[in-house]
Design brief:
Its EC number is 3.2.1.21. GO terms for molecular function: beta-glucosidase activity. Belongs to the glycosyl hydrolase 1 family. It catalyses: Hydrolysis of terminal, non-reducing beta-D-glucosyl residues with release of beta-D-glucose. It is an enzyme of class 3 (hydrolase). The chain is of the alpha/beta class. It has one domain: TIM Barrel (Alpha-Beta Barrel). The chain is 39% helix and 13% strand. It has 16 helices and 13 strands. The longest helix is centred in the middle third of the chain and has 25 residues.
Length: 485
């Protein structure tokens, strides 16, 4: 990634921005553990998130995903709601332990049947299903065997990918291998704020390599079993890194975070090699020549059809000497352990003068435009998809039974305008998926943070589309942004 050297340069929208391209996909996204519930039904066994959320002190208020938004039982109603909102695509993830409970061996047909039924319902409603194989919920039995720091987990993932391709390949034409492997590796095995809650820098780096390998092996498995027209992808939460000042020290801090936050994945996946500066920054932690086997990099660099990009907020960094600030104010949860192995000293900052969301994340649409343009310049010819973008705010149901969320509408408008500018500036962006379709289990924050366009009353499971859902519905119908109120 190209590190942005300053966040002060103005970025002006064109006088008449180009419309969203013909065929641009308008969707919304969820993740299995966050919405499905039915944690122990039809043969499903615990994932690492079941274990983690049931461990006292790991999740706010002791919340778990046992019921979540009960999407497993209510998917027909949810698909009908998607249709009413005009969604063209639904990005969902598969619970690995629902279809292959031990992470090995044959699938449980009852688990596959849920996804078959969900996909059939989507297709009947005219909604394109987009399947993500992994959104952080590793079967606990595989974690007990060592988890992602162990090479064997990547091989098990390839087997699982083949199972899913054979089961749904005749009906699902868009596939994503991994969602945000950075979070899996560095929040799960580095800072410990995500499952499985380990705080081992070497294990985090080993996990990153094996996730890369899992992506490559799974892509090969998908290609083997899917029709030729099917598309494969990976989704990365690329950090739009900016140095706080123009100093050389802050520029090096940005380089470091770009290496371990972005290029640790884009390097091998898109360039066929790990960046040399990353290897130097982390050589005291892990033995890279021992970790990376012959043939790994070629496997990881398997061609993909689309790169998914998740963006919420910029990442502004410095050395501790160039500004006060909490060195863990990186938006990735509170921990005494860093998710940035080799660069633990780097400090993180909010964007000055910008509003913040309920997650205390700076609202800065220009960061999305800059990120898309950087990725497009560095990977010409690679189509892009914004696979997650959204915001949590303090939503409440009014006396009239409605949820008015003007802050979210403003957030979405700004970021969709940024996508529109990127398209006008030459980025091949093929679609946008709102995070999230509905309120859900927000990982370590439990049910305290609401990202959904649809409000969930967890006591009754009542669904109430927020004002932002109706606004997004208008965007889809217009294939463009409506005039500001």
């Amino acid at each position: 990634m190209t590190v942005v050297r300053s966040d002060t340069a103005p970025q002006q929208a064109p006088a008449a921005p180009a419309p969203f391209p013909t065929g641009f996909i308008w969707g919304a996204a969820t993740a299995a553990y966050q919405v499905e519930g039915a944690a122990a039904e039809n043969g499903r066994t615990p994932s690492i998130w079941d274990t983690f959320s049931h461990t006292p002190g790991k999740v706010l208020n002791g919340d778990t995903g046992d019921v979540a938004a009960d999407h497993f039982h209510r998917y027909r109603d949810d698909v009908a709601l998607m249709k009413r909102l005009g969604l063209k695509a639904y990005r969902f993830s598969v619970s690995w332990s629902r279809v292959q409970p031990t992470g090995r061996g044959p699938a449980v047909e009852r688990g596959l049947d849920f996804y078959r039924s969900l996909v059939d319902e989507l297709l009947a409603a005219g909604i394109t299903p987009v399947a993500t194989l992994y959104h952080w919920d590793l079967p606990q039995e595989l974690e007990d065997a060592g988890g992602w720091p162990e090479r064997a987990t990547a091989e098990r993932f390839a087997d699982y990918a083949a199972i899913m391709a054979r089961a749904l390949g005749d009906r699902v034409g868009m596939w994503t291998t991994l969602n945000e492997p950075w979070c899996t590796a560095f929040l799960g095995y580095g800072s410990g704020v995500h499952a499985p809650g380990r705080t081992e820098p070497a294990a985090a780096l080993r996990a990153a390599h094996h996730l890369n390998l899992a992506h490559g092996r799974a892509t090969e498995a998908l290609r083997t079993h899917l029709p030729a027209a099917a598309q494969t992808s990976v989704t990365l939460n690329l950090h739009q890194v900016r140095p706080l000042t123009g100093s050389e020290a802050d520029a090096d801090a940005a380089r470091r975070i770009d290496a371990v936050g972005n290029r640790i994945f884009t390097g091998p996946m898109l360039k066929g090699a790990y960046p040399e500066d990353l290897l130097t920054d982390t050589e005291r932690i892990v033995n890279w020549p021992e970790l990376v086997h012959d043939g790994d990099l070629a496997a990881i660099a398997a061609p993909m059809d689309v790169l998914g990009v998740n963006y919420y907020t910029p990442t502004i960094v410095s050395t501790p000497a160039s500004g006060a600030g909490d060195t863990r104010n990186d938006g990735h949860g509170s921990s005494d352990h860093s998710p940035w192995p080799g660069s633990e000293h780097v400090a993180f900052h909010l964007a000055e003068g910008k509003p913040v969301t309920a997650m205390n994340w700076s609202v800065d649409p220009n960061g999305l435009h800059a990120l898309l343009m950087d990725v497009a310049r560095e990977n010409p010819g690679l189509p892009l998809m914004v696979t997650e973008n959204g915001a949590a705010f303090e939503d409440v149901v009014d006396a009239d039974g409605q949820v008015h969320d003007p802050e979210r509408i403003a957030y979405l408008r700004g970021h969709l305008a940024a996508v529109q500018r990127a398209v006008a500036d030459g980025a091949d962006v093929r679609g946008y998926f709102l995070w999230s379709l509905m309120d859900n289990f927000e990982w370590g924050y439990g049910y305290a943070k609401r990202f959904g366009a649809v409000h969930i009353d967890y006591a009754t499971q009542r669904r109430t589309p927020k004002a932002s859902a109706h606004w997004y519905s208008e965007v889809i119908a217009r294939h463009g942004l409506p005039a500001e109120a």
